[in-house]
Amino acid sequence: MSQIRHVLGISGGKDSAALAIYIKQRYPTLDIDYYTCDTGKELDDTYRLIDNLEVYLGKKIKVLKAVQHPDENPFDFHLKLKGGYLPSSIIRWCTQKLKLEPFEQYVGTDPVVSYVGIRGDEKREGYISKKSNIQSIFPFRKNIWSEDVIRKVLNIANIERLMDLYVSIDLENKSQRFEELLMSPIEFSFSMDHKLHLLLDTNVKDFNRLVFACLKDTDYPLSGEQYFPLIENDEILVKEDIFRILEESGVGIPGYYRKLGFEVDNQKGEYSRSRSGCYFCFFQQRIEWVWLYEQHPEMFYKAMEYEKDGYTWGQNESLEELIKPERIAQIKLEHLQKISGKRTASPLLTNILDDEEDEEEVGCAVCQI
Predict the structure, then answer these.
(1) Residue 333, class by beta-carbon neighbours within 10 Å (0-12 exposed, 13-18 middle, 19+ buried)?
(2) Which residues fall within 8 angstroms of residue 203, CB to CB, at 6 or more apart?
(3) Cα(340)–Cα(266) distance, rounded to whole angstroms?
(4) Distance CA 303, CA 293 (A)
(5) Which of 20, 73, 279, 360 could form a cystine bridge with 40, CB 3.0-4.6 A?
(6) Cα–chain-centroid distance for residue 128?
(7) What share of the chain is helix, strand, coil (3-state, %, to 5)?
(8) Strand ranges (E), the chain
(9) Nearest CA to 340 among 356, 324, 328?
């Protein structure tokens, strides 16, 4: 097997940046290659964050582009190939062409461990490559392993192998409870997710050691490693931790997360951007489009220029319609009502951590890479 590469994608958002800092702090012996997929349509704050990270990490972040010609903008180039058909939540060609393909070309055929910044308070799986030489690891979660690894390890046909490993390898605490869970078959009333959570609740480190031992019989990249330090990690990092890491490191929080005040109908509110990525990302909430219009009007009007021939960023509303004064007021009032309802449920939603939706991967589990 070729030498295993360890890579981490920087999206320009908070989670991937914090992950790079966290791994450098906690696992300095890991030789990580950092990269970013540049669509050519990012906010300036994204590029500033990448510059700050390079200083902190003491290492260059490789820029990957879907088009190699210096005079071609990656997004515009592929938009022409698509005949002006804008990407949407239904057809996300931008993800495939501007993120996945450059990443997989960068990786090639080398065995690669890819670190992904999905937090412990998020309920989503994240990017899993279809290429067998790429293995995803999720250091912020209680379960660091990807769904495909868990399916293989906890498959009913693997129980005997699991028990053999359980007996033969060094574990922190070989409890009867842990052994009973390992032997329990997956059934309608006992799902794989349920079994996984119970095993993790019993002993995270022992579960990680067992999975790592199981990988030795597979083609996953980590099968070629004698030791993997993250199997000893039982930390769970949530949104508050991410902002703390960014602030304490000196890298700082990207400017577009900062809450800015607005007033509508004698009511005061705040808005910001809740994700990194292209300034015209179709996953933006309407209040974020209003934020873009009022804070970066030049970018908003550039986004408007793409809307033609029936193609719009929103499914039911063009940007021209969205910025009519009465419509902006309506969007702001709806935003205030939504926040007010959430504040009643949780007072924690009043500060900078109050993203209405999670950032990088809202509906797009690979935009982090």
Answers:
(1) middle
(2) 171, 172, 173, 175, 178
(3) 15
(4) 10
(5) 73
(6) 11
(7) 45, 10, 40
(8) 5-9, 32-37, 61-64, 112-115, 134-137, 260-264, 267-271
(9) 356
8 Å CB contact between 137 and 228: no
Q: Which pair of tokens denotes residue 78?
A: 């592929």
Confidence check: pLDDT of 25 > 50 = yes
Mean pLDDT of 176-191: 94
- Structure pTM? 0.88
Residue 168 pLDDT level (bands cut at 50, 70, 90): very high
Q: At CA 124, angle to CA 312 and CA 121, rounded to 5?
A: 115
Task: Work out the widest C-alpha separation in the chain, in whole angstroms.
Answer: 70
Which residue in this structure is represented by tokens 């969205």? 322
Domain 5-141+236-249 has CATH 3.40.50.620: yes
Q: Say how far apart CA 236 and CA 246 lie, in whole Å.
A: 16
Alpha-carbon radius of gyration of the chain: 22
Give the span between the Cα atoms of 252 and 246, in whole angstroms: 5
In the prediction, which pLDDT does 62 show?
97
DSSP track, 50-66 = HHHHHHHHTS-EEEE-S
Per-residue tokens: 45: 């704050």
What are the domain boundaries of the chain? 5-141+236-249, 147-223, 258-350
Rounded CA-CA distance 354/152 in Å is 37
Taking the C-alpha atoms of residue 284 and residue 238, their distance in angstroms, rounded to an integer, is 22
